[in-house]
Amino acid sequence: MNSYRMRSREIPLQDSWDVIVAGGGPAGCTAAAAAAREGAKTLLIEATGSLGGMGTSGLVPAWCPFSDMKTIIYRGLAMKVFEALKAQMPHVSKEAMDWVPIEPEKLKVIYDELVAGAGATVLFNTQLGSVEADEEGNVLALITASKNGLQALKAKVYIDCTGDADVAAWAGAEYLKGNTATGELMPATHCFTLGNVDEYAYLNGPLLHNNNKTSPIFDILGSGKFPLIPDSHICNNVIAPRTVGFNAGHLWDVDNTDAFSVSAALMQGRKLASVYRDALAEYMPAAFGSSYVANTGSLMGVRETRRITGDYVLSVEDYVNRRSFADEICRNSYFIDIHGTEKEEKQAGGKPEVIKRYGPGESHGIPYRCLTPRTLKNVLVAGRSISCVREVQGSVRVMPVCLAMGEAAGIAAALAANLPDYDVHAVDVAVLRKRLKEEGAYLPDPADGTGFGDPGAAAGEEGKPVRYH
């Protein structure tokens, strides 16, 4: 690639912040709210015009489960967001805990009120352009671009909630990306909504999800009439009156760290939404015959890119053994949900699961050390790019657990901002856990301490995939 040397220039600097959060998805929202709640002067920068990430701009139509099939385990700010949205959706049961639909416009306002109500400042339409860091692992400033032009934003502590570990990676942190053997990334999905759906016909017709062996999606694929529809993946929910949201199909070879790749995928996804509408109108005419494409996501549904290497790398063994940790900041019970290659997803039955799902009441801990890049001093990472092996990333990448991780990162950042050198590795995890519990976090302590990981253990290594049945 050719290079261009920029003319030496000075840009405006804002250096009054204690904590800056990059990325306003679920993790970023709870991180900013928690840091501000702890008294830190907090700024949240977001590249789009709304908060919420995949649940709002990305149009993901439902929350992944909030429970371990017995009780809600993503609590604190996560549960407040979840319950606030449910209360505004009359068609959703008050007792519902799992796969609850999302109405994105209502959720946008809930996030606005959460973050602003805690006292954090939000900068929308502000793109991260560069990260200034020194050789000791300190981030010195974030360089952003917006209608204000180029600006340098400086804080004591930074929380990377970009989903792609942009802050950490650009500051020089170690990371892994996708399948380390092949370089493959999980496929993306461009979510969309169909309006003017006949709800009665939809709810009383055949189940569309591909878990139903007689789903119309298999007739659509078998007809050969709609070759652009890639496979049978088709999650869907009523998100508002006469409106059904879809998380459907796969787009392969999409890399969210490459703007050209994502730009092409967004165009392909918008075209695909119209094809799904036409196919559903033909094969489920009572429900979708008069429907139209009401909206397509302004964000691509990206499942993975970078994973930082932190002070601890959460392993498959940790997941399988339902491990607890002395420094854990939340629990997680979601299954290992790795979307496969094009060949795997197009085969009969799709990609097989190789790691058995948890039973009722089962979960594993996520240690604070997975949020701390081991070569950076004043940076935390929360969201899908925390320190873990790829298999586990397929579980911890979803919104409920990202909400829980974000709150922990926000409290930890506020604590680190009061330390002499702002070192996130030096945060007192006992104080952090105490504050999380005071705010309602689900952090049960085993009665005899068994299953606790060593809080002083060194970072793990990326292991070979292990098949568990």
Automatic annotation (TrEMBL):
Region (Disordered): 443-469
Keyword Ribosomal protein: no
SUPFAM superfamilies: FAD/NAD(P)-binding domain (SSF51905)
Alphabetical UniProt keywords: 4Fe-4S, Iron, Iron-sulfur, Metal-binding, Oxidoreductase
Tagged with keyword 4Fe-4S: yes
Pfam families with a match to the protein in the record: FAD_oxidored
Protein name stated in the entry: FAD-dependent oxidoreductase
Species in which this protein is naturally found: Paenibacillus phytohabitans
